[in-house]
Amino acid sequence: MTLDPNQIATEVEQEKNRHLIIKTLYLSRCKIWIMVLLTLLTPIAAYIYTRRWKAMFFSFLTIFFFLLIYVGDEEDFERAFNKGAELAPIVALATGIDNWLGICRARQKVILWNRNPSGDS
Fold first, then answer.
1. Chain centre to alpha carbon of residue 23
2. What is the average pLDDT score of the chain?
3. What is the pLDDT of residue 4?
4. CA separation (Å) from 40 to 9, 51, 72, 97?
5. Cα Rg, the chain, nearest whole Å
6. pTM
7. How far is CA 18 from CA 12, 39, 45, 51, 88, in A?
8. CB under 8 Å to 56, separation ≥6 — which residues?
9. Residues lower than pLDDT 70 in the chain
10. What is the DSSP letter of 119?
11. Are the C-beta atoms of 112 and 31 separated by less than 8 Å?
């Protein structure tokens, strides 16, 4: 019994596509109002709810670097903390919009898949 590399590559590609479809279906079923409430509590909770790990990593890495630039020159910890806390509403708004767009994109993909079930798009 020999292993055909083309068959293995096809199976791996099908598994990747299956995983992407499951992830997109889960994201499309997320409720936007729940995501907004979680974002208002803490922005990381919205990413956990939507299971968008890569987006969470890049968002918080970007926020971290902006905070380093914005607060980096402060000597006093309390002033630095207060200066950083000024950005909290902006962070909540940005993460809310990011998750909202992710949910909307997933819903659009599902609509396209339902219109064209053959998978050509």
1. 11
2. 86
3. 77
4. 44, 17, 26, 12
5. 20
6. 0.75
7. 10, 29, 26, 17, 37
8. 44, 47, 48
9. 1-2, 118-121
10. -
11. no
